[in-house]
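Protein modeling request. Please complete all fields; requests missing the sequence field cannot be processed.
Requester role: graduate student
Desired output: 3D structure, token encoding
Chains: 1
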Amino acid sequence: MIVCHCQNIADHDIHAAIDWMRAADSEALITPGRIYHALGKAADCGGCMPLFLATMRNNDNLEVPMELRGLKPRATQENKICRATAR
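Delivered output (87 residues):
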């Protein structure tokens, strides 16, 4: 299935790029930009991005490395209050 009509990128191209990047570096953060770059292409209009991201999420090799999970603090009511009073 064609995901990006502007650059003629199919779902199997996205999966192949993710699999290739994960095999090359098991800790790499894989982004749409890196996939475009790996395919030798560049994003154009961005209309495909929802389908592009959905296709990426369906790949088993897209997992975030364990060491990088949970680095962003979760938003809590206490954090929101502290930020609001700091302004």
